[in-house]
Design a protein that fits this description.
4-stranded antiparallel β-sheet; alpha+beta; about 15% strand; 7 helices
Length: about 190
C-alpha cells in the first residue's frame, strides 16, 4: 500500500512552493521531503518553510505533506502522533545518552502520516524503516497546528505521569534535558 498520488494544483501556500520547484505530483513531493536532512526548522510554525530551509523533523515533514494533501482536496490521509519507548535499538544514536543517565529508554513522541490503516514515516532520508513502531504506547490523530505547543505539552504530561508511575529519578525539566540530548545525538548520528 502507498499513499495516493495526485497532481498538485495552484492556490495553496504549500502547493505553490512545490510547484515553484517544478514538483508536480504528491509522490514527487514525498520524495523531496523524505530526502531533506533531519533537523529542526527555524520557523516551524510556517509549514511550507521546510521547503526553503532544506531540513525538517518528523513533525514538520509530515505536517507539510498533510497540508499539501488537504490543499489538494485529499482528506483521507491523517497526521498522527505517537509516544514510544525510545532506545538505541529503535532510534540509533541515543544509546550513549541513555546509558549516561542509566535509562533503558525515554518516552518520546513521533509524528507520521497514516492512510488505510498503514503508517508512513518520512522523517529520515534514505530510510522507510519504522523501528519505533513495535514500541508505540499511545497513538492519536492531530491537526497540523498541533505540531508545536500541543505536542510539547502532550509529551511533557506523559513524562510527568511516567516519573510518578515508575519512580524515575529525574524531574520533568531534567528528563526534558535528557530528551534534548538524545535528539542532538540522533541528529549527529544521522549526519
Amino acid at each position: 500500500m502507498s499513499l495516493p498520488n495526485f497532481n498538485l494544483t495552484k492556490g495553496g501556500p504549500v502547493s505553490d512552493q512545490f510547484l515553484k520547484k517544478d514538483i508536480m505530483t504528491f509522490h514527487d513531493a514525498i520524495r523531496f521531503i523524505h530526502n531533506l536532512p533531519y533537523g529542526r526548522n527555524k520557523t516551524p510554525e510556517i509549514i511550507e518553510s521546510i521547503i526553503n530551509e532544506g531540513v525538517g523533523t518528523c513533525a514538520t515533514k509530515s505536517s507539510c505533506l498533510k497540508t499539501l494533501a488537504e490543499e489538494n482536496e485529499i482528506h483521507s490521509i491523517s497526521l498522527n502522533l505517537c509516544v514510544y519507548s525510545m532506545n538505541e535499538k529503535n532510534t540509533p544514536g541515543v544509546g550513549i545518552v541513555l546509558d549516561k543517565y542509566k535509562l533503558p529508554y525515554i518516552l518520546e513522541d513521533h509524528t507520521f502520516l497514516s492512510y488505510a490503516n498503514e503508517r508512513f514515516d518520512y522523517a529520515f532520508p534514505n530510510s522507510s524503516k519504522k523501528l519505533w513502531e513495535p514500541d508505540i504506547l499511545i497513538e492519536i490523530t492531530i491537526d497540523t497546528d498541533q505540531i508545536l505547543d500541543y505536542k510539547i505539552s502532550f509529551l511533557k504530561s506523559i513524562h510527568k505521569d511516567w516519573i510518578q508511575r515508575d519512580n524515575i529519578p529525574y524531574t520533568s525539566d531534567e528528563l526534558w534535558d535528557i530528551r534534548e540530548q538524545c535528539i542532538q545525538a540522533l541528529t549527529k548520528n544521522l549526519n
